[in-house]
């Protein structure tokens, strides 16, 4: 941090505020002293607000850059795997071969759920949205480990990370199994993380499940691409919940709740619903017009981003993975893929989208891959949440292991001035 100053003039007042520089990216103006001067900053939606200092992920929205602990997402997607990325996000450095092997083994030994947790699933209707089940079950984990919740204990924070990374695929797959009335399938330690998830999703007790390596690799890439994304809405929710000292399991459940919205992680489900609603390439122009119509609430799901005002680097990798999976499955002529490709081309040539710098985001192609693998639309955000758990936890851990205080934003009050209660 530097000792540079910004000067703010408010009426007759002139206020000097410290300016800090990070490793890379915009400088920040420390406005904490403003409250003593009787003024607040005003930034609904936090468009220009840095809520914290962090060393985990860096995004350059203008240039389509996404770094995890300094490593570009394209290189991680090409050369790493999801569990190695979990280690990197959590610890700040890539593991040695020995550390990586030990980490993979550790995670394998935490994939089962306490058998009592099965009861939580059975409390839901079979047609409950899987995100509702996941939110409830993950929050319930806080009831199973409350005796290991010393937030100042690095060892207890580490085992909590291992439990969450390991158990989320089991919980996600069981949300699916419960919704289709099939028996829960237990994790298998002879499979990789992604193979194991697919076997818990699609395996049945009647026969041995043999994972397709192309689909398992595509699943792992989807996990990598969704793992973390700086201070997005759900991560900021986890940080704010964590700032009160709440159980990390409850904080992760708050992140799941925030991710569910169609403007955030729920967009992958909304993209597929949109492509199905468009139904045919001949209808695309009508929907583009709807997306541009201010009086029409319809938005092009999977397009636009608060930070990326250029391409989303994850969308590029996701588009390539979509082609790999669909050609592996002989589905290159999938009608929804044709609609998606045509929609992307038309939108990227349309002034409305160009002027507003609206590009496909991470959610635009992911749903096509998941659908091709056989995962129902209602499970798409569950998979996003499963992958993002390491991002949420890494940010929670970064905050809790350092100096922090409870988050408490203020407001611009525009309600009634003081008035007396009418006496008869
Ligand atoms: C994720 O933050 C993250 O990092 C999130 C995420 C992560 O990894 O955590 O990247 C994951 O949430 C990706 C985004 C998924 N959401 C969608 O695909 C839903 C569709 N997109 C929009 O809802 C929107 O683009 C947002 C929510 C993503 C961004 O909203 P902003 O930054 O608040 O943008 P805005 O609403 O201010 O839009 C600016 C203009 C507006 O037009 P004008 O008022 O200037 O005329 O662009 C228009 C908007 O109407 N616009 C769109 C549009 N997105 C923005 N118009 C049509 N279709 C769209 N998708």
Automatic annotation (TrEMBL):
It catalyses: oxaloacetate + acetyl-CoA + H2O = citrate + CoA + H(+). One of its GO terms (cellular component) is cytoplasm. Belongs to the citrate synthase family. The active site is at residues 305, 363. InterPro entries: Citrate_synth-like_lrg_a-sub, Citrate_synth-like_sm_a-sub, Citrate_synthase, Citrate_synthase_AS, Citrate_synthase_bac-typ, Citrate_synthase_sf, Citrate_synthase_typ-I. The keyword Acyltransferase applies. SUPFAM superfamilies: Citrate synthase (SSF48256). PROSITE patterns: CITRATE_SYNTHASE. Keywords: Acyltransferase, Transferase, Tricarboxylic acid cycle. The keyword Transport does not apply. It holds the Pfam family Citrate_synt. GO terms for molecular function: citrate synthase activity. This is Citrate synthase. Pathway: Carbohydrate metabolism; tricarboxylic acid cycle; isocitrate from oxaloacetate: step 1/2. GO terms for biological process: tricarboxylic acid cycle.
């Amino acid at each position: 941090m530097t000792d540079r100053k910004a000067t703010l003039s408010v009426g007759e007042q002139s206020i000097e505020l410290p300016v800090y520089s990070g490793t890379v990216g915009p400088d920040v103006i420390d406005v904490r002293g403003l409250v003593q001067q009787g003024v607040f900053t005003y930034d609904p939606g936090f468009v220009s607000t840095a809520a914290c200092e962090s060393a985990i992920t860096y995004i350059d929205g203008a240039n389509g850059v996404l770094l995890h602990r300094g490593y570009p997402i394209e290189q991680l997607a090409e050369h790493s795997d999801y569990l190695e990325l979990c280690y990197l996000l959590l610890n700040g450095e890539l593991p040695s071969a020995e550390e990586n092997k030990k980490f993979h083994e550790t995670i394998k030994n935490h994939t089962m759920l306490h058998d009592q947790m099965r009861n939580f699933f059975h409390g839901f209707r079979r047609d409950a949205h899987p995100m509702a089940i996941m939110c409830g079950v993950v929050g319930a984990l806080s009831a199973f480990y409350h005796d290991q919740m010393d937030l100042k204990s690095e060892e207890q924070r580490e085992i909590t990370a291992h439990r969450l990374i390991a158990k989320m695929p089991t919980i996600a797959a069981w949300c699916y199994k419960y919704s289709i009335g099939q028996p829960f399938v237990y994790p298998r330690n002879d499979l990789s993380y992604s193979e194991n998830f697919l076997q818990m999703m699609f395996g049945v007790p009647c026969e041995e499940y043999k994972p397709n390596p192309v689909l398992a690799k595509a699943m792992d890439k989807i996990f990598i691409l969704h793992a973390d994304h700086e201070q997005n809405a759900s991560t900021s929710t986890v940080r704010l919940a964590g700032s009160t000292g709440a159980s990390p399991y409850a904080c992760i459940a708050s992140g799941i709740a925030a991710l569910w919205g169609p403007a955030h992680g729920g967009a992958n489900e909304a993209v597929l619903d949109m492509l199905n609603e468009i139904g045919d390439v001949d209808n695309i122009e009508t929907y583009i017009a709807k997306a541009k119509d201010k009086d029409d609430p319809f938005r092009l799901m999977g397009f636009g981003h608060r930070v990326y005002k250029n391409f989303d680097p994850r969308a590029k990798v996701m588009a390539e993975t979509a082609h790999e999976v669909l050609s592996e499955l002989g589905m290159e002529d999938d009608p929804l893929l044709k609609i998606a490709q045509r929609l992307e081309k038309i939108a990227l040539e349309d002034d409305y989208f160009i002027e507003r710098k609206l590009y496909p985001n991470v959610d635009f192609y992911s749903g096509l891959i998941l659908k091709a693998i056989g995962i129902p639309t209602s499970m798409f955000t569950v998979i996003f949440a499963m992958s993002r758990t390491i991002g949420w936890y890494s940010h929670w851990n970064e905050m809790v292991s350092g100096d922090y205080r409870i988050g408490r934003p203020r407001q611009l009050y525009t309600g009634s001035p003081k008035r007396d209660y009418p006496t008869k």
